[in-house]
UniProtKB/TrEMBL annotation, chains A, B:
Its EC number is 6.1.1.14. It holds the Pfam family HGTP_anticodon. Coiled coil: none annotated. It comes from Gigaspora margarita. Residues 165-528 form the Aminoacyl-transfer RNA synthetases class-II family profile domain. Homodimer. It comes from the Eukaryota. It is found in: Cell projection, Axon; Cytoplasm. This is Glycine--tRNA ligase.
């Protein structure tokens, strides 16, 4: 097989209209793509399989929510304040760059230059080979050892710098605007959400959602009720989300508008076991946990998930269950297992809400790219929405045996409290009722030390005197029949476009000895079109047969593509190899005489020839992946005929 | 059957989480809804059937495009200037109203009051009955006959007033702010598109698309190429669109964010025949053409579509084909044929681009509501985008026989033309080459009359002298081997949410004698969940059977809902009648002993009892609608057992 060539693949994807830049006749806008017929069908099939594999398999509660989201919701979730990137401007041209990406690129280039310079002195042969690999011109400039070490440290930490720190790096290391060499401004924060205004007043602000998750959280109570108040359960949602990237590149891998499929699996924080864990515990995953990364290594460990959970490499069964189901899903689509790994986030790179996170990373020509994130968001989201709206997004669980325990509690004697504190009573009461047990004990001590009096600092910034004659702090025995808790959320979040693109790279190859004859070997269930229907020529004798056969295939819900163009059969087969169409039925003069047709398989190019009804049954089984082509070949004789080019 | 009660239905839809206002815990925002599990599954099934019925059946070229659309695109399409409603404000409170809706409501109320006043004098009994039908308080005030006639005329024309005209009506007829009685401002235009800004500069404007159509038009060239340059063909797209309604009400029928499914079928303007018209020509449709409406009548005519096209009631075969396919699709979903009609737009109510338009209107408690629009958009969109971008969105057709005809053409003698006109040569040439045949003939005459000299007014506003020594205008014989044309577009456009809500009303009923026992009789293929799985009780003996059966049903891709709650069987059946689940498998002690289970059908509540494998096969056939329940009952004995409540 020849080496992978991205530009050949991109040429194919454009020619066959898998996808193209949106508004291309208007010049296009970075980060927006339209999926053409094969891309759209491929995406539909991936989504359909996702729904079967996750939603139907686990009876998840799927919802379809609004894209435009009330600003308040995203303020609460933290997105308004924290969902930002740092940008810098060329002081003269006004060109805008994402600060961390710019620093990363420049430092990487300088380190590459250093590497080349060192290699040139050490070993000329290697240096030549290495030079060829690199695109563009890299100047071989040797760095001071200390600078080199500093650069390497910057790269390792690149995801975690504040704007001020990025600004310092830019100044200290003389990083300039790449095209012009001009100075850059200080980094400023740029929020990645698209903003709009709802209704005619102009006062009601909304954002295009950056994820489907928040819509799911807001409906937690309704889901729980729909599930007959039973825990654990999962909600799910498939839909468009938006991120106003500063300067998106990398094709489908970094876009401003994308389709996500997200699951929010709600669990009891005290019990993250999964009832179906046993079914998958022996599946082996390629894991890159923190302990390997922190040694600066990137070679993953192959482990059965059962063992990984047992050894606490993966925190709990539910997280392990979803990592494994994700692995099964991706490999079923055609992702190569040796180009798939699960990488655990380092503590400092996790999103603000996550308490643990593993990414399914797929290797493509762009490197190892996060395609699925699997985060334990803890109780973060349900807690902040509960606090903000006072709607309790919680679980109430009847206890089989009541829970009895001692607790420090506060009692306020309202008869004295109110009159004494007057208009300040409310703010002081709020302060007091928000104290936890430890704080109550401390307050009790203060009161005792202060002869029954002390001052408290309330939310309005003022201090108020309280005294022990209007409040009691003491241990009480509490008996609880109902346990209330905010569930934790395990969230597997799938970037459909990233999976789709990575998959295309994995199934792309060219036929031995002919680089022009490219093939996309999608598994039948994933392939955009299942069967090509070709008459040998556009002889009218074939048209009735084509019509009948089309109609029969549609009844079987097999998506077809008829190609009755005047191109040669070989040309038409090639075109459909490029579309990844796994099978082709060919109608020739023999078909008109005896009702037999040939069935060709894409990868092997082998054919069988049988009666139409037999072929239809075989095709149905192949498309449903109930039989393999090898099994078909072992049952029916191979039909040998020269392919006519 | 009891009379339809919308609030009971709404209660059910809320309780079973078919849908709910988005961000409800934050108070909600009008016009945004989230679909819960049954609503979401229902929507998926409708979309899935739409894709099979239209896209797969006709090998349409489906695409999935960007929602955020470059402002330029929508400027060209006319949406930036014309996609607006008129709004008025309460001068004191600032409350905003959509002007035409407000006028319509007030005038309707006054006419109702007049009707009551007249009836009260004429016939007391009828008046009482009529009063009950109306919500709210209507004052019985008799109007002058002239005023009444004027009001009726306003209602008939309500969709076509300009802002100034609406302002006059509001002033002349003393229409005030409904709650406060305050004066209203002059109507101002409000664009219905949500606006946003793309990228970090703030200079690149985008809108959320108001329809998927424009994205399809922009890709016309790529589609045509994908289709091997063959005409006619259709593209299709399913996705979210947005309209920033001024004050949306009417539940799912008027929302700010909605899912559409649109087809753009491209035809040769000289040939709007459809190759499959014969297959559907005998299907009868309920048609409300212009000629009936212009007589002030609303009783549709039942006609076979073949006859309707023959009589030119429906303009052409392609339009007729899609009306019929739409009828077949909607009735397959469960829309009642007697509550479905196709209404032709009056010439003055069509969108700015349309040259003919029929709406599929479905009757619900909100009246007859447009759920599908079927417009002939002529060559409008492809023409305006071609003119704006200079990318020719056209068809080039090789002619079997060359076309030979005479044409008046212009030839410029550049050798003289350039030197004479100097820096003005370009603008004059542009003016001349844009003249059509008629204009050229006129210019020729002017030159002859002016002794070979005349003045022309060019695009820069200046006049330039031209003379016959540097241009020739004469008839030439033209021979064309290729015909170039801009296709016409027939566009069936489906509002999925409106269809979904109307369908729910059509399949909703309550069991005889018990208004509390509501049923949603979705056809099996449409139903959110296909089968309920209920163990008689939560006895552990049943759990293995439930698990095995669940797994088998999932393998058959039958979506299930297990209800092992402690509610009675009757209660659990009722709950699923409300979800519209057509079948239920019940596991009891007998099942554990002999491996038989019962299968219950929702509408009849009848059951059969057979071995599990038999039941699974029967269920699969029922869900695929390959057999009816009646056929099943004629084959298997009815199992009689009291339903336990």
């Amino acid at each position: 097989m020849t080496a992978f060539n991205r530009s050949s693949l991109e040429e194919l994807l454009k020619k066959r209209f898998f996808y193209a830049p949106s508004f291309q006749v208007y010049g296009g806008v970075a980060g927006f793509y339209d999926y053409g017929p094969p891309g759209c069908a491929l995406q539909s099939n991936i989504i359909d399989l996702w729904r079967k594999h996750f939603v139907l398999e686990e009876e998840m509660l799927e919802m379809d929510g609004a894209i435009i989201t009330l600003a308040d919701v995203l303020k609460t979730s933290g997105h308004v304040d924290k969902f930002t990137d740092w940008m810098v401007k060329d002081v003269k041209t006004g060109d805008i760059f994402r600060a961390d990406h710019l620093v990363e690129n420049v430092i990487e280039t300088r380190l590459d230059g250093d590497k080349q310079a060192r290699l040139t002195t050490e070993n000329d042969a290697t240096s030549q080979k290495d030079k060829k690999k690199k695109k563009g011109t890299i100047q071989a400039v040797k760095l001071e050892d200390a600078t080199k070490a500093e650069y390497e440290e910057i790269l390792a930490k690149i995801d975690n710098y504040t704007g001020t720190e990025l600004g310092e790096i830019i100044r200290n290391h003389k990083i300039k605007s790449p095209e012009t060499g001009n100075d850059l401004t200080e980094p400023v924060e740029f929020n990645l959400m698209f903003e709009s205004s709802i209704g005619p007043t102009g006062h009601l602000k909304g954002y295009l959602r950056p994820e489907t998750a928040q819509g799911q959280f807001l409906n937690f109570k309704k889901f729980l009720e729909f599930n007959n108040d039973k825990m654990p359960f999962a909600s799910a949602s498939i839909g468009r989300s938006f991120r106003n990237e500063i300067s998106p590149r990398s094709g489908l891998l970094r876009v401003r508008e994308f389709t996500m499929a997200e699951i929010e699996h709600y669990v009891d924080p005290n019990n993250k076991k999964h009832v179906r864990f046993d079914e998958i515990k022996d599946v082996k995953l390629s894991l890159l946990p923190r302990y390997i990364q922190s040694e600066g290594k990137t070679v993953p460990v192959e482990l059965a998930i059962g063992e990984a959970v047992e050894k606490k490499i993966v925190d709990n069964e539910t997280l392990g269950y979803f990592l494994t189901r994700t692995h099964l899903f991706l490999t079923m689509l055609g992702i190569k297992p040796d180009r798939l790994r699960f990488r655990q986030h380092m503590p400092n790179e996790m999103a603000h809400y996550a308490c643990d996170c593993w990414d399914a990373e797929i290797q493509s020509s762009y490197g190892w790219i996060e395609c699925v994130g699997c985060a334990d968001r803890s109780a973060y989201d349900l807690t902040v929405h509960t606090n903000r709206t006072k709607e309790k997004l919680i679980v109430r669980e009847s206890l089989a045996e009541p829970l009895v325990y001692d607790k420090t509690v506060l009692e306020i004697n309202k008869k004295i409290f109110g009159p004494k504190l007057r208009q300040n009573a409310k703010i002081v009461e709020e302060y007091l009722t928000n104290l936890n047990e430890e704080q109550l004990e401390a307050l009790k001590k203060e009161l005792e030390d202060g002869n029954g009096k002390t001052m408290v600092s309330c939310a309005d910034g003022n201090q108020y005197e309280i005294s022990s004659d209007f409040l009691t702090i003491q241990k009480q025995t509490i008996t609880e029949h109902v346990r209330e808790y905010i569930p934790n959320v395990i969230e597997p979040s799938f970037g459909i476009g990233r999976i789709l693109y990575s998959l295309i790279e994995h199934v792309y190859w060219t036929r031995e000895g002919d680089e022009q004859r490219a093939v996309l070997s999608f598994p039948p269930r994933v392939a955009p079109f299942k069967c090509l229907l070709v008459p040998l020529s556009n002889n009218p004798a074939f048209s009735k047969l084509i019509r009948d056969l089309s109609s029969k295939l549609r009844k079987l819900h097999i998506s077809i593509k008829v190609d009755d163009s005047s191109n040669s059969i070989g040309r038409r087969y090639s075109r459909n190899d490029e579309l990844g169409t796994p099978f082709a039925i060919t109608i020739d003069f023999q078909s008109v005489i005896d009702g037999t047709v040939t069935l060709r398989e894409r990868d092997s190019t082998k054919q069988i020839r049988e009666k139409i009804d037999t072929i239809l049954q075989v095709l149905k089984d192949l498309v449903d992946e109930d039989v393999t082509w090898e099994e078909v070949l072992s049952k029916y004789p191979t039909f040998v005929q020269q392919e006519l080019d």
